[in-house]
Design goal:
By secondary structure, this protein is mainly alpha-helical. It contains ten helices and no strands. The chain has helices spanning 3-16, 24-38, 46-55, 60-65, 71-85, 90-101, 114-125, 129-142, 163-169, 181-220. Helix 1 (3-16) packs parallel to helix 3, helix 3 crosses helix 6 and helix 5 (71-85) runs antiparallel to helix 6. The N and C termini lie far apart (69 Å).
Length: 225
């Protein structure tokens, strides 16, 4: 890929950024991990991979404006239009768009090409480990969701939208969803950091609940605190 082509793609990506969770630093982390994984896989087209990495989140704004939309599907269509306008060949466009449209964790259609599998893994690695927790907390704060929700008896309710639910139902389950051997290796390295953080948070939440229960008991008994 030429410098001019990279700058063209990079400039378009930057023009589409609308939040700090999917900003250029996220894009470059995904790109760096993708290129590292690509070193271990045969038959990778670097230009397809780089283009897909740079453009994979360009439709985040559309999804924020209309949550019914999937940013991966919209991103594929948006990328195709941009690439056609700038003279890229159709077979190349189709390969890039297939990568973008199958990179989402919750997507029903799994990635097929090696470039699509690498993008999927590289993007999921940025949702793993300490970085994944930090980005998830930023997103939860942006959308106004709490750290956790308790049931009437004081237990954490895993079914209610919260950071706790996102970790339990997504982040904790990421680690068996990688397609490449290098992606799996990198994920295992990050897994311990995420587990340690969540265990510490869970412990502190439970301790706070015990203190709150004791305080309520004191107040109910009419004792001074």
């Amino acid at each position: 890929m030429t410098r001019e082509t990279f700058q063209l793609l990079d400039g378009y990506m930057r023009s589409c950024v609308c939040d700090s969770m999917h900003d250029p630093t996220h894009i470059y982390r995904v790109l760096a991990r993708a290129l590292k994984i690509a070193e271990t896989e045969p038959g990778v087209c670097p230009d397809v991979l780089i283009t897909a990495c740079l453009l994979h989140d360009i439709a985040r704004r559309e999804q924020y404006d209309d949550p019914r939309l999937c940013h991966a599907q919209e991103g594929g269509r948006k990328a195709a239009a941009f690439l056609r306008e700038n003279g890229f060949e159709e077979p190349f466009i189709q390969k890039v768009c297939a990568c973008i449209q199958t990179h989402r964790y919750r997507a029903a259609t799994p990635p097929q090409s090696i470039e699509a599998k690498i993008l999927f893994d590289a993007d999921k690695l940025d949702a793993a480990g300490a970085m994944g927790i930090a980005r998830t907390l930023m997103f939860q704060g942006k959308t106004g969701q709490p750290l956790y929700v308790r049931t009437a008896d004081g237990a954490i309710d895993p079914a209610q939208d919260s950071f706790y639910r996102e970790y339990t139902f997504k982040l904790q389950r990421l680690y068996d969803r990688f397609y490449t051997a290098e992606g799996q290796r990198m994920a295992r390295c990050a897994q311990a950091a995420a587990a340690a953080f969540f265990q510490a948070l869970d412990c502190e939440v439970n301790q706070a609940q015990l203190h709150a229960s004791a305080l309520c008991a004191h107040l109910t008994d009419g004792q001074a605190v």
